[in-house]
């Protein structure tokens, strides 16, 4: 049984087939922690007044919105003018195109919504559309209006139901050329490529999201719980990698990664001589690196700063 209120109710139409559905948000916002700013001496929350330089505090009914076209020059819009531009909420999502599931670059996906039939009478048509998309491995595309705005919608099967994902428009994305252009077209070394492929193959398994944990949020929740009960708030940091385990090149890194996965590789005993040699090598490398750093480091003038701070003027939303 669906929980919460649907964010959209209407019909999905495929040619002459129309099925009533409801959309529910598929993500959980309350999983994230939010904080209030507190005045430490009094323990009271901070509140902000809306002010104008030279005028002081103002009332909300004196505020309109402005779009900055040049520095300190704005096109002013009232809320009524903005509301008039909102698209009429059409309650129909018409599927106008179908593409392969792999055709849409993941960078376009924005927000996911669960799609469920509106009632039992709609289940037959819902099931047919869902199973047809699954069998053909296709995604249905159309445009949907929610909260006065138009979105590209991608519809696909999801377990016993369907998933609708809104897509970003093309002009919302940055072109990748500016970022990837400096990367050369040189082909990868075949031997290195084979080792990397073997490493990937060895570590391939079905996706299980429960394996990945939000350690930052979990640590924050634990800290909050301890402080609320007056317990110690000391947090132990995870141990980092051994400073002496740096690998000198990619080939060694790949080979060592593959050897780590072999049975008995971790428990293989080392000779005393080999252990001593391994222990000496990192310290020598560190000493050389330190000497090189001293020679390369230029003299810094007294009182120099690593950066400058700039204040930014708040702009109208």
Give a quick account of the main beta sheet: strands, pairing sense, barrel closure: 8 strands, mixed
| Ends distance | 39 Å
H-E string: EEEEEEEEHEEEHEEEHHHHH
Low-pLDDT stretches are 243-247, 266-317
Structural Rg: 29 Å
What is the strand arrangement across the widest sheet?
9-1-2-11-14-13-12-10
Tell me what portion of residues adopts beta-strand conformation. 15-25%
Total strands: 14
Summarize the structure.
By secondary structure, the chain is α+β, with helices and mostly antiparallel strands. Strands 9-1-2-11-14-13-12-10 form an eight-stranded mixed sheet. It has a two-stranded antiparallel sheet with strand order 3-4. A two-stranded antiparallel sheet has the order 5-6. β3 and β4 form a beta hairpin.
What does this structure look like?
The protein is an alpha+beta fold and about 325 residues long. The chain has helices at about 80-85, 125-135, 175-180, 190-200, 215-230, 250-260, 270-295; strands spanning about 10-15, 15-25, 40, 45, 50, 55, 65-70, 75, 90-95, 95-100, 110-115, 140-145, 150-160, 160-165. Helix 4 (about 190-200) packs parallel to helix 6.
């Amino acid at each position: 049984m669906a929980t919460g209120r649907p964010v959209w109710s209407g019909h999905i139409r495929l040619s002459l087939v129309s099925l009533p559905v409801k959309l529910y948000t598929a993500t959980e916002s309350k999983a994230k922690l939010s904080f209030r700013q507190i005045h430490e001496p009094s323990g009271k929350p901070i509140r902000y007044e809306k002010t104008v330089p030279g005028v002081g505090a103002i009332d909300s009914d004196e505020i309109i919105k402005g779009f900055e076209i040049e520095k300190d020059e704005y096109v002013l819009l009232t809320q009524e003018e903005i509301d008039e531009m909102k698209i009429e909420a059409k309650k129909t999502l018409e599927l106008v195109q179908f593409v392969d599931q792999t055709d849409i670059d993941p960078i376009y996906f924005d927000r996911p919504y669960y799609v469920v039939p509106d009632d039992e009478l709609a289940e037959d048509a819902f099931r047919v559309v869902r199973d047809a998309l699954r069998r053909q491995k296709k995604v249905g595309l159309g445009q949907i209006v929610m909260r006065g705005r138009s979105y590209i919608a991608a519809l696909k099967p999801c377990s016993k139901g369907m998933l609708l994902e809104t897509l970003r428009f093309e002009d919302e994305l940055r072109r990748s050329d500016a970022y990837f252009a400096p990367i050369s077209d040189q082909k990868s070394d075949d031997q290195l490529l084979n080792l990397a492929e073997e490493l990937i193959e060895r570590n391939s398994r079905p996706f299980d999201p429960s394996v990945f944990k939000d350690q930052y949020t979990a640590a924050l929740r634990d800290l909050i719980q301890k402080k609320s009960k007056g317990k110690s708030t000391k947090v132990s940091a995870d141990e980092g990698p051994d400073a002496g385990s740096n690998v000198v090149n990619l080939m060694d890194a790949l080979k060592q990664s593959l050897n780590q996965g072999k049975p008995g590789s971790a428990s293989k005993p080392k000779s005393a001589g080999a252990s001593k040699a391994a222990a000496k090598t990192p310290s020598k490398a560190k000493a050389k690196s330190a000497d090189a750093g001293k020679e390369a480091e230029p003299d810094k003038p007294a009182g120099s700063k690593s950066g400058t701070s700039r204040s930014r003027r708040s702009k109208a939303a």
